[in-house]
Design a protein that fits this description.
heterodimer; A: 8-stranded mixed β-sheet; 4-stranded antiparallel β-sheet; 30% helix; B: 330 residues; alpha/beta; Rossmann fold; 33% helix; globular; binds adenosine-5'-triphosphate; binds iron/sulfur cluster; binds magnesium ion
């Protein structure tokens, strides 16, 4: 299976009072054509920064190093003008604070039309028809009337769907979706996840979906990458990673999530992740890891392979069994 | 089991006013809600955004005044109390709010944040501090945190402080309104365990509000499902989760993504129609009818009552009730 997106040794740093700090610390990732890769991880682990780095949308003063290739084309070497042509066209992004993507002063339908017309040579009428069609696709009721609505005239769920419609407007090859359903109710979430799957089946779109919800990952993922403190600590097929986690952090995360019919105490991960300004040497999970030993605080573990596609960065894995829950 | 709280037919409609104070109609936020909380039990309340969960909690706390109904706490109607009686009663019921960032006073130390409700109730500084230390310890925060300020703490730690503050007045009932929703999964598990431990240690009764159905299932003895201000189903958690009878509860439960890879949902299953209707103008009859896959003409005419469909298990749906009648007629 061919890869649509190949990320190698991505490092994203920000300049802070304490000098440059790395929020993404060497990420290598493959996204297959027509498949969904889910990025799972706790708050602050660098999921959003990584996603923004792909499109070079990190803030000024930040630095993105490594390589990002879209169908072999290096995105980090492109001029800002070339990036504009790629964004919203071949690659679309739904930002974590998606609701702020809509300008309160303009009608939602007009904003969508402009996005479509910025990338495609279509007339006003045709653009409008496409917007109505998109509204219908994302499940906005009475789309003919809603295209005239201002953002404040829509509910939160409806605005989120409009933002998704905007991202899908140009039928991107790659959709980067940063927690697109976290703010939504489960019934609307189910609708939107279903929509993603439909569009994927229809146009063969690849999706990178960021979430901290293991249920959403299980529902959507072909591949799962688990991030911790700016690195991918485990990667593999959804089946392998979610049912037979190798890395102690992944195992801990899954065990800490209450599941249907769960009884007894929840298992927890003590403590909290390190701050990016105070990254310890060695394995970043060592302070919280029940299996940590002295070498874990001294050097950084390499990836160890197991199973078909599964890899995890942990010293204990070589020659040991997986950390079953 | 004995009931510590009995809520009967409570309603609240917020009146909306335009720019010049003219009435623009009312939002029916809570509509004829009744439930009981068992002593030392946990009642979970679930439902989508805007269905009235927080409003219900605030009505019980009397942070807002209901239009009608009764809230009986140990045989006293909280809604009839005033002045010092109300103040006394209020200490017995405490609330933990969703946002651990805005619910603490940023200018007070952690210790003083916890001691504050005691000062407000006339306890002296020294005694209040002693108590506050005790509850900080109970929620698992080391003494060294007492002198820190909220911005020094992580989200999970702040939520622990908020819980300590709710417990310091030694309430009988704690209402946790989305108390773990803003926390990371690994931290959430710590706080959920903490609630379970404290419940035992201090003999608390708990009302646990969350939109996360797995969390509610894990925490609760009884569950109540709300839709657009009303109760559509309630009962023992095992019953409601394993055998939901109301079409809305069924859709809600089926919408939750399962962590089990074997039960990935077929993409074509449509569970609900359309959007949540406006509470400004709720549908006639069954409020769920505009989204219900089973709705019939009569659902617009008749308001379904909550009818017992199993031991302690109640549901409000005309079709379910009729189906039962049919079974009984056999
Ligand atoms: N502009 C910036 N300047 C400095 N640090 C930043 C900047 N943007 C993000 N960071 C830091 O980078 C780290 C990763 O942030 P990121 O937003 O990617 O986390 P995340 O995994 O998306 O978390 P969440 O689940 O909360 O969205 C955090 O520690 C964050 O504080
Ligand atoms: N002070 C108020 N004035 C007018 N309307 C209000 C007020 N407070 C709440 N409402 C409305 O009442 C309804 C119920 O709101 P409530 O906050 O109780 O919902 P909720 O179930 O807690 O939702 P969420 O899950 O989003 O917290 C909503 O339609 C809300 O807009
Ligand atoms: S390398 Fe060591 S500290 Fe890191 S996850 Fe493995 S055992 Fe734990
Ligand atoms: S009463 Fe009618 S509309 Fe309401 S839940 Fe039952 S079938 Fe659906
Ligand atoms: Mg993020
Ligand atoms: Mg609420």
């Amino acid at each position: 299976m061919s890869n649509l997106l190949e990320i190698d040794s991505l490092v994203t740093s920000f300049s802070t009072k304490k000098g440059m700090v790395d929020a993404v610390r060497g990420v290598t990732l493959r996204v297959k054509k027509g498949k969904t890769t889910v990025i799972l991880g706790e708050s602050g682990s660098g999921k959003s920064v990584m996603l923004r780095s792909i499109l070079r949308l990190t803030q000024r003063g930040s630095n993105v190093a490594g390589s990002v290739r879209l169908e072999g084309e290096d995105l980090l070497g492109k001029s800002p003008k070339e990036m504009v042509a790629i964004r919203g066209n071949r690659v679309a992004m739904i930002f974590q604070d998606a609701l702020s993507a809509l300008d309160p002063l303009y009608r939602v339908g007009d904003q969508l039309k402009e996005t479509i017309r910025a990338h495609h040579k279509v007339g006003r009428r045709e653009a409008k028809d496409r917007v109505i069609e998109l509204f219908r696709k994302v499940g906005i009721p009475s789309p003919e009337e809603r295209v005239h609505a201002y953002p404040h005239e829509m509910s939160g769920g409806m605005r989120q769907r409009a933002v998704i419609a905007m991202a899908l407007g140009c039928r991107p090859d790659l959709l980067l979706a940063d927690e697109p359903t976290t703010a939504l109710d489960v019934t609307i979430q189910a609708q939107i996840l279903r929509l993603f799957k439909e569009l994927q089946a229809e146009f063969g779109m690849s999706i990178v979906l960021v979430t901290h919800d293991i249920g959403v990952a299980a529902e959507m993922a072909d591949e799962v990458a688990v991030m911790y403190a700016g690195k991918i600590v485990e990667y593999g097929s959804a089946e392998e990673v979610l049912t037979r986690p190798m890395h102690p952090y992944t195992a801990g995360l899954i065990a800490a999530t209450p599941q249907s019919k769960q009884t007894g105490r929840l298992s927890t991960i003590p403590g909290q992740p390190p701050l990016i300004t105070e990254m310890p040497p060695g394995c970043a999970f060592a302070q919280r890891c029940p299996y940590a030993e002295s070498r874990c605080t001294e050097s950084v573990p390499d990836y160890v392979s197991a199973g078909r596609s599964q890899q995890a960065a942990c010293f204990q894995l070589a020659g040991r069994e997986r950390y079953a829950q | 089991m004995e009931h510590i709280l009995e809520v009967t037919d409570v309603s609240k409609t917020f009146s909306l006013r335009g720019m010049f104070g003219q009435s623009k109609g009312g939002v029916s936020a809570v509509n004829g809600v009744s439930f009981t909380l068992k002593s030392k039990g946990t009642l979970g309340i679930v439902g989508e955004s805007g269905c009235g969960k927080s409003t219900l909690a605030r009505l019980i706390m009397r942070l807002i005044e209901p239009d009608q109904g009764q809230v009986r706490y140990k045989n006293e109607d909280l809604l009839k109390l005033g002045g010092s009686d109300l103040k006394k009663m209020r200490k017995r019921i405490q609330m933990v709010f969703q946002n651990p960032y805005s619910s603490l006073n940023p200018k007070l130390t952690i210790l003083d944040n916890v001691a504050f409700p005691l000062w407000a109730n006339g306890t002296g500084r020294a005694a209040a501090s002693t108590q506050a230390y005790r509850y900080l310890d109970a929620v698992g925060l080391p003494k060294s945190y007492a002198a820190k300020y909220p911005h020094h703490l992580s989200g999970g730690q702040r939520q622990r402080v908020a819980i300590a503050r709710a417990l310091v007045l030694e309430p009988d009932i704690v209402i946790a309104d989305e108390a773990v929703s803003a926390l990371d999964k690994s931290v959430q598990a710590q706080v959920l365990n903490l609630f379970q431990d404290l419940k035992k240690e201090f003999d608390l009764s708990l009302i646990f509000i969350s939109h996360d159905l797995h969390v509610v299932e894990y925490m609760s003895d009884d569950v109540m499902v709300m839709y657009l201000g009303g109760v559509v189903e309630k009962g023992p958690k095992e019953e409601v989760f394993a055998n939901p009878r109301n079409p809305y509860t069924q859709a809600l439960l089926k919408s939750v993504p399962s962590v089990d890879l074997a039960v990935r949902k077929a993409p074509e299953t449509e569970l609900l129609k359309g959007d949540l209707p406006s509470p400004l103008n709720p549908p006639s009859g069954c409020r769920f009818r505009t989204r219900c896959m089973f709705a019939e003409a009569r659902c617009a005419q008749n308001v379904p009552a909550l009818v017992e469909v199993g031991e302690g298990h109640h549901t409000a749906c005309l079709l379910v009730h009729e189906g039962m009648a049919a079974v009984q007629n056999l």
